[in-house]
Amino acid sequence: MNAPQAPSRPYDPLSIAVELIRCPSVTPAEAGSLGVLEKYLGPLGFRCERMRFSAEGTPDVDNLYARIGTEGPHFCFAGHTDVVPVGETSAWTVDPFAAEIKGGRLYGRGAADMKSAVAAFAAAAERIVRGGLKGSISLLITGDEEGPSINGTVKMLQALAARGETIDHCLVGEPTSVERLGDMAKIGRRGSINGWLTVTGCQGHVAYPHLADNPVPRLLEMLRQLDDHVLDEGTDHFQPSNFEITSVDVGNQATNVIPGSARAVFNIRFNDLHTGASLDQWMRSICDAVTAELGGSYALKTVTSGEAFLTPPGDFSALIARSIEKVTGIAPELSTTGGTSDARFIRAYAPVVEFGLPNATMHKADENADVNEISRLADIYEEILRGYFGEMTT
User: Fold this and answer.
1) From the candidates 19, 62, 82, 354, which is the catalytic residue?
2) Active site residue 60
3) Plot region of 87 (φ>0 → left; ψ -120 to 50 → alpha; else → beta)
4) Domains of the chain by residue range
5) Sheet strand arrangement including 368-370
6) Is 120 helix (H, G, I), strand (E, B) or coil?
7) The whole model's pTM is what?
8) One pLDDT digit (tens) per residue for the chain, 394 residues
9) Which architecture, in CATH terms, is 13-189+308-393?
């Protein structure tokens, strides 16, 4: 097979985005998307390295680390080429992987989240590299962001650290804008902890409650106290933490049976006043107190999918904000709202900010992005890189 022909320059972010979307890279499938990036980055002098990781009980994942330069400062762009499933294809008016352009918008799974941003960064990097580079630029691209997030960014960062590679600053291309490109960037994210609570009693006939032990009242009291508690009032950069009950179930199909156990599932989105460990301890203290008063027993399992983090406003976020405003005329809000992203892993290695396209259509049928905004996103990324290797290195 012949090697792929080097693409013509300058690179067009829309064309790259189209190629990426036409790769049906639903997690964990790579489906050729990393090869598309290698085709564009390799001719520029990027050293492209496939990083494949596996873990028991999870699918193997192919990732790509591409770097040009060996010296500092080292600017890293982090993103993902995996996408969520298309869902019901009948809900789409276009082929999810055809990358069709209609009415000035690019349609397809990943158009917003976040293949267009990956394409825009590759195009921006080409413009910078063409003029000479004093420092290093890298792309850290995973195929596991929309999945378990076990064999992707986490292990890539660990592998880089193990061989002595450091990242000075990182930009994640998640779709952070809301109404229009440039109105919001993320300087932090709330943490997330899930809890599974099971209260155990003794099954019995409802007519003979003294022969049974109903766990439902104890579960309800635990949930009431957990839900009534005000975790905090928020901070200068974060909204208040919130506890949300997502399921309550006893699995009881009879009307005359006291159940032997009752279960609940809940989630807490928390700010940097808390940690997953501190919230686990708080929940157990509530459950312990209810159990001591009302009897019975319980089991609580918690999983923290990410800790809260904040990149304090400073030179890096100011550079990004200035670059956005220069291209769009909009001064972005520096926010910490929304869900989690792989920035929660990167923050342990380098200051990290997230910025990308509007997020209104991500994960939806007919996901799409404005073609002009894809082009302007590449302009913003270029401006960020020029400022970084100018202002922040002098």
Assistant:
1) 82
2) no
3) left
4) 13-189+308-393, 191-306
5) 101-102, 105-107, 368-370
6) helix
7) 0.89
8) 444 566 888 999 999 999 999 999 999 999 999 999 999 999 999 999 999 999 998 899 999 999 999 999 999 999 999 999 999 999 999 999 999 999 999 999 999 999 999 999 999 999 999 888 999 999 999 999 999 899 999 999 999 999 999 999 999 999 999 999 999 999 999 999 999 999 999 999 999 999 999 999 999 999 999 999 999 999 999 999 999 999 999 999 899 999 999 999 999 999 999 999 999 999 999 999 999 999 999 999 999 988 999 999 999 999 999 999 999 999 999 999 988 899 999 999 999 999 999 999 999 999 999 999 999 999 999 999 999 998 654 4
9) 3-Layer(aba) Sandwich (3.40)
Is 49 assigned a catalytic role? no
CATH 3.20.20.300 fits 191-306, yes or no: no
Compute the distance between CA of residue 166 and CA of residue 390 in angstroms, rounded to an integer.
20
User: 67: Cβ–Cβ under 8 A, 6 or more apart, which residues?
Assistant: 46, 47, 74, 136, 137, 138, 139
Helix axis angle, 115-130 to 33-41, nearest 10°:
10
Q: Which of 266, 260, 343, 249 is nearest to 303 (CA)?
A: 266
Query: For 141, how many CA atoms within 13 A lie in the half-sphere containing its CB?
Result: 30
- 223 contacts: CB under 8 Å, gap ≥ 6: 197, 245, 248, 264, 266
Q: Which of the residues 19, 126, 145, 367 is marked catalytic?
A: 145
Q: Would you state the structure tokens that stand for residue 110, as one six-digit string?
A: 């990943």
